[in-house]
Design goal:
By secondary structure, this protein is an alpha/beta fold. It has one domain: Metallo-beta-lactamase, Chain A (4-Layer Sandwich), CATH 3.60.15. About 20% of the residues lie in helices and about 25% in strands. It contains five helices and 14 strands. The protein has a seven-stranded mixed β-sheet with strand order 6-5-4-3-2-1-14, covered by helices on one side. The longest helix has 11 residues. It is globular, with a radius of gyration of 16 Å. The N and C termini lie far apart (about 40 Å). The model has no long low-confidence stretch (mean pLDDT about 95).
Length: about 230
């Protein structure tokens, strides 16, 4: 059983998303008023994921792909599974063909009224992916998976006007609070959130020093963070 989550009970207004980071890796639930997606469900409380519209998997490593968890969530929710090719191969015998997609970089998908755009990830796996998740109201989350910074991230940030960027700060090879801050500096999101590691405070300090215009927020595992906290005119 993973971290207890209350994300399903969060009431959202239009133009808001709720994020829950549920492990020390890249496990994230993103909810908007009408869509729910989970990325890399490992060490997660499956009871909190009974109403999921899509599972996204970034790559096949143990801290991102738990085959049993994915199979269980999908069978209970009948959700779509979008994943890298290696994970697709591992899941193909258990997930219905019409519910499983092996994705490539630059692929685009609709999940209800939300969109998923697939981008590359600079990480030593077979074919790792990152995802841009845009809610039905146009709020965009850039889930960078385990990625180290690479120069094309600046183009991604400009093209998609990223609202929230998740930045790896540890555990993955060569990933540190400094490389995480470099991701934020390249993407220039409205808000940068450190994850995948324990150097969140260090990340926030480095980003504040090097890129003062980019806001950061440290989220605690298992708690729900709503972005933006308040809507104009409320």
């Amino acid at each position: 059983m993973g971290v207890r989550m209350a994300v399903e009970k969060t009431l959202l207004d239009r133009g808001q998303i709720a994020l829950t980071w549920f492990n020390k890796y890249s496990g994230i639930v993103m909810r908007s008023p009408h869509v729910a997606m989970v990325v890399d469900p490992v060490e997660v409380d499956e009871l909190a994921l009974s109403e999921i519209d899509a599972i996204l998997i970034t790559h096949e490593h143990y801290d991102h792909l738990d085959e049993g968890t994915v199979i269980d969530i999908q069978s209970k929710s009948s959700c779509q599974v979008i994943c890298d090719k290696a994970s697709c191969d591992r899941l193909s015998a258990a997930i219905p063909k019409n519910k499983l997609i092996g994705a490539n970089v630059k692929d685009e998908f609709q999940v209800k009224d939300a969109s998923v755009i697939v981008e590359k990830s600079s990480h030593p796996a077979e074919a790792p992916l990152a995802y841009l998740l845009t809610s039905e109201d146009g709020v965009t989350l850039y889930h960078t998976s385990d990625s180290l910074p690479f120069k094309e991230m600046a183009d991604i940030g400009k093209k998609y006007d990223v609202d929230v960027c998740l930045c790896t700060v540890g555990i993955a090879p060569k990933a540190t609070s400094r490389t995480g801050a470099e991701i934020a500096t390249l993407v220039k999101p409205k808000l940068a959130i450190p994850y995948h590691g324990e150097e969140q405070k260090e990340f926030a300090a480095i980003l504040a020093k090097n890129s003062a215009k980019i806001k950061s927020h440290v989220i605690k595992r298992g708690e729900t963070f709503v972005y933006p906290m308040e809507r104009d005119g409320r």
